[in-house]
Batch of 4 targets.
Target 1
Amino acid sequence: MSTSEPIRIVYTWDRSNFEKSFESAYTYHYKNSARRYIGWLFIAMAQFGVVAALKKGSVALLMFSTLLILYWYVVKKWLLKRRALQSFENSPFKDKKIEMVVTEEGIARGKEFIPWEEIEGIVPADEALMIYQQGQEFYIPAGAFENIEAMSRFKSIAKKKGKLYV
């Protein structure tokens, strides 16, 4: 199969793919942002709160520290996922078939064409790929490719264009 032959990507944008996309994007953004350092600050504050609460017998300080950690690591993600899920439920793409054609020039999705120069990056994430383009994310599950060879060709084109982040 020639490397110049277009690569077809076809999948259904359903709730399962949405949830995988959310988890992949959340993990990627968290690991690659300064927000994780704020989380470390929260942990440090909570540890000082626990020590101070034990020394002074202050239950309120202990509760505040515990709530701070619970918010940062549990509630915040739950709120974001809930809001994203609500957006998915109202999306015109819900349960629609997504088709893309990838060439050396760029990625065509319906009538829209995205040249490689406009793509900020492509990140492999848990048997899938995340394409970042001007504030938008496109999730492509591994099963969207015709076969492993097609996915490998896609990655090699992206790497050649300097867009694949490993």
Target 2
Amino acid sequence: MARLAQFDQAGTHRLIPAKYGAESVLRSLPLPPDVLADLSELDAATNERKIAENGGNSAIGPGELLLGVPEAHIVNAAFTYPGTFGGRFHGAQRGVWYAGFEIETYIAEVAFHKRRFLADGRIQGWHRFDYIDFLADFSGEFHTLEAAELETCLQPDPVPQCYSASQALANKLLFEGSNGIVFPSVRRHSGTCIACFRPALVFHPRRGQKYRLSIEAGTDSVRSEVLST
């Protein structure tokens, strides 16, 4: 069974698509205040993060989500947009905050999924994707995987079927009160990742550099460049 260990890691990396890190489009529209208010109300009715922040999500509520701290909306979005099939250590009801201890690790993780996206769309050639690196610090007790769990929970493919065992373990640990899991990166040898189950433990979330990833469809080629600081 996964065991607890103390982890203190500052400056972990999570790449968020640049379009999601920008200011709300609504705020930039030259519209009367009453029209903006109506649009904001409509947005809140269809925005999964805002629905959860207002108590409309049974899997995670406002008592767990962040409020009134810098980048709270970025952290909360990770927990309220779990994706259709979830991820390695979360299901389709509730997300987690994934991060890499090294920027190269998170680049490798993102590049893998982008290559799958290009392959599924039968898209060829080189394509560029812009991201903002969100850093966060962690300090506390997190679970690590035993040898048998490393075998069953870190299968590289097929995605999402290979997530079955890891999602089951994560769900069990979550409801037993776990803070999350620290595990070896599947996509970068020697890299380390964290899956944090608790928004409050994503400490001091902050913006780092902006990266552009250039990925060639059908190959393992990926180039990264820093666009800004």
Target 3
Amino acid sequence: MTKELLRIEGLNAWYGESHVLHGVDLAVQEGEVVCLLGRNGAGRTTTMRAIVGLTGARKGSIRINGEEAIKLPPHKVARLGVGYCPEERGIFASLSAEENLMLPPAIASGGMSIDEIYEMFPNLKERAGSPGTRLSGGEQQMLAVARILRTGARLLLLDEISEGLAPVIVQKLAEMIRTLKAKGYTVVLVEQNFRFAAPLADRFYVMEHGRIVKQFAQRELNDNKAMLQEFLGV
């Protein structure tokens, strides 16, 4: 029987006076790949940020591996085994690729070794000594994901990792997600690129105006194409 790794109930979140999330409910099983779909401004990134405690006020419930996290600061959420890869990547330009990789602390046992990471991302091994500014957009994205794999996180929140990247790099990122799933990682994706996300996700949640308006499984994808066209224009 699969274990529920993440459950969100009645989640409301604010940025200052702006009420952005309005009662979000979702659940993610251990080992699943789940994708949040929606237009820009629908609340997908805010949901990710709320999980790790990076929004303003939050109300509701966020249970990670059974532990309530709604009032925890970001560093304590991380210690529950959560790795967040934001859209802006946060690569340090003055550090080499390997120095960037070594920056985050281990938050749990079982993090990938440098050798395992280089096996998964051979490009990073080749560019280990290159400054962050010299890495391509795709290499920076791989490095941003690789950093959280080293920490021991098992729940990975990946925000728009395919955005603006060449198709060949997007294909490599898809292979990476399949490999992580095979290794038992749990992945929550925010993606604008539906063609990238569609074959990877086990389940989908569609967001609109800070709420979940629809959820469906991979096997129900064809049945929901008309709805996706309406909400996403895909």
Target 4
Amino acid sequence: MASHLHFSSGMNTVSKALALLLTIAALATPAAAARPDVFFDGERVSAIAFETPLRDLMSALGAATGTRVRFTSDAGNELVDIEIFEVRVAEAFARILAHRGHSQVGSEIWISSPVAGSAQDAPVVAAGAHASYVAELGDHALGSHNGRGRLVATAELVRERSAAAVEALHGVLDAERSAQIRASALTGLDRSGDLSIESLADLARDEDAGMLRRKAIQLLSRHGVGNELAAATLTELADTAQNPMIRLTARTALRSLEIAA
């Protein structure tokens, strides 16, 4: 069922983009969590996707930006996690396809299979920023009264991958209430391999977390092998969660956890 969002003509580009992204995060159902969310204002593009096939993400970006996307037969099925906020189209494509063979001519882009491993395994930047810069990002992500400022600071922390950035992301995941910002922090922590089972369990139980609950449940099954809290949380949700999709996801995750053990 299509949904239509209307924005006042008086809103600026940034406000429209953030309004759309935050509305999607608030209203999305678990069943729609794998679909990419894309917003293009004619100059800059924002895109969010969790465990989404690259083919689906690029097709959505192509449709939004007027770019014709073509894949070789063996490309596009790998799953990607992406958060891009208000960047130019060329930069968005460059970030997403940095570790995949591709070529672009005019408004047409050809994509082949990965050439340097998964983007999730590759450094986001060649070197982390200096410690004082990371500290400033952490303070802004945790303490700013401006939602957009926290969102941007968190996205920068995800790119950093330093120990200080990871510590700040833990704080964001635990303290932040914006689903969009928590999603960015969760993805960064997943990439870093430094996830807290306690934080994942809290997020999986949080009925206000929306689509992030399924993501947390899936990560519990992936990172919680042999952990009593992970098993107990999944068992509880499989039996008692009011949302049937959460129950189903928890049951599947619990089976995966038991098999892995």
